[in-house]
Amino acid sequence: xxxxxxxxxxxxxxxxxxxxxxxxxxxxxxxxxxxxxxxxxxxxxxxxxxxxxxxxxxxxxxxxxxxxxxxxxxxxxxxxxxxxxxxxxxxxxxxxxxxxxxxxxxxxxxxxxxxxxxxxxxxxxxxxxxxxxxxxxxxxxxxxxxxxxxxxxxxxxxxxxxxxxxxxxxxxxxxxxxxxxxxxxxxxxxxxxxxxxxxxxxxxxxxxxxxxxxxxxxxxxxxxxxxxxxxxxxxxxxxxxxxxxxxxxxxxxxxxxxxxxxxxxxxxxxxxxxxxxxxxxxxxxxxxxxxxxxxxxxxxxxxxxxxxxxxxxxxxxxxxxxxxxxxxxxxxxxxxxxxxxxxxxxxxxxxxxxxxxxxxxxxxxxxxxxxxxxxxxxxxxxxxxxxxxxxxxxxxxxxxxxxxxxxxxxxxxxx
Amino acid sequence: xxxxxxxxxxxxxxxxxxxxxxxxxxxxxxxxxxxxxxxxxxxxxxxxxxxxxxxxxxxxxxxxxxxxxxxxxxxxxxxxxxxxxxxxxxxxxxxxxxxxxxxxxxx
Lengths: 415, 107
Ligand SMILES: Cc1cc2nc3c(=O)[nH]c(=O)nc-3n(C[C@H](O)[C@H](O)[C@H](O)COP(=O)(O)OP(=O)(O)OC[C@H]3O[C@@H](n4cnc5c(N)ncnc54)[C@H](O)[C@@H]3O)c2cc1C
Ligand SMILES: [Zn+2]
Fold this sequence. Notes:
The complex is a heterodimer of chains A (415) and B (107).
Chain A: H1 6-14, E1 32-38, H2 42-55, E2 60-63, E3 79-80, H3 87-101, H4 103-107, E4 118-121, H5 125-141, E5 146-148, H6 150-156, E6 172-175, E7 179-180, H7 183-196, E8 200-202, E9 207-213, E10 216-222, E11 225-234, H8 240-247, E12 253-265, E13 273-276, E14 281-285, E15 290-301, H9 309-322, E16 331-342, E17 348-351, E18 357-361, H10 371-384, H11 398-401
Parallel strand pairs in A: 1-2, 1-11, 2-8, 4-13, 11-18
Antiparallel strand pairs in A: 3-7, 4-6, 5-6, 9-10, 10-11, 12-15, 12-16, 13-14, 14-15, 17-18
Helix pairs in contact in A: 2-7, 2-10, 3-10
Chain B: E1 3-5, E2 12-14, E3 19-23, H1 35-42, E4 51-57, E5 65-71, E6 77-82, H2 90-99
The complex binds flavin-adenine dinucleotide and zinc ion.
Residues 6, 8-9, 11, 58, 61-62, 64 of chain B line the site of zinc ion (ZN).
């Protein structure tokens, strides 16, 4: 792999930029691998990357039915934060956030991580109490967040209307090192690094069956034929239930649509990320100048990557009161992704009832921020066969035990 | 946009007139049941990519709960029926079978 650098750009410029090599190879599948990861979204690719980097396992295939990063990883609003309430969440999300800080250097790929600061607005008295509690919890967890006043919110976000009347801004939970990153670049950067370690990224290849023998996984049936493996990691977000079904177990996960939209580009007007959970609205400004807006989930099971229009309407109706400046913006694009929701709104990184078969899912509406931490934890689980400290609380049996990692407090949303 | 016909008042209601209620025909387990049964009832809901039976409420109409058969992969609605049904009506099941020959059937 050639390194990307300012010198490489200068050198390639002399060649009219005709000499750049492909970022990753597209080989035909081998007969067998030490580990197969199903799903080339951010979480699958990060899992493969840390399998190689942290555990020296590089005879790995990442199998993707579409194109890499074409699932939720390429459909989200790219918010990165770690201001969660529960200790297990704080640990994995803060691990992820801290890995984002150095990801561009680590991968030699510019993922445009922008820790521009993030505010979660309190617009009801219930939220004030909730976020003050979270700020205290974060202080104990070593996650830098603070509770700030409406006046400070106005200072950070001059375009905001804090007076309501219907949705007044009563304060906010502020994480100065939260922010955004370029979602595609995260997938592409990991893919390039995996390919450079000798791993096979196999796109346009759908897994259609999981072969087991005596309760232990042996390989997968795919649209490109049978591929054997010693270990299998399932990392397919919205399709986790389908893959679990193929392997012969059931998951506490439901698939629903979540939508987002972007406006026409305008001049820079907001240099922080603002989340308004009461109204299910989230907004940041992209480097191109578009206002990036995320909405709420639909209330019914759905695999169509298309959400209901009235959710967009509800989100915008509320955001217009808080950000009067956007009321005349034209919206350019709107899309949906299928998110995998668990009962406590926390993910699953777990062994399964099938031997040597591991699952990483349930990131729901908020897993982009977690990609590096999740990959780190999942790689350890796949490599050692047992979860490490980051993953152990996120096992799939916690529902039976009643040991929830309850992050649904903030109106059941968590981006 | 989903349009479901309320089996009570016969109104073809658009989604904003309705409120979704997730999986239909749930068997409820409570005190005295095994941990597995209780967990399955509480959390391991059916999540098929295809034919699905759901509860909906005609919340801005007659206010009653009813049940619907829908394809989660295409949003096609096969039909709706009253909530007082312990399983989908036979003619609705036949209709779904005809449209989705590889459907494994209700259960
Ligand atoms: C509109 C929207 C906004 C969001 N906003 C945010 C946000 O601001 N911040 C945040 O942190 N998170 C956000 N999220 C959530 C985040 O996008 C996801 O949690 C995260 O991207 C999940 O990554 P993944 O790698 O698990 O899944 P994906 O990126 O979906 O990857 C799974 C892959 O598995 C593949 N696959 C499925 N079935 C098969 C099969 N049978 N064989 C082979 N491959 C298969 C799919 O094609 C897909 O590429 C948002 C999500 C949406 C939809
Ligand atoms: Zn009615």
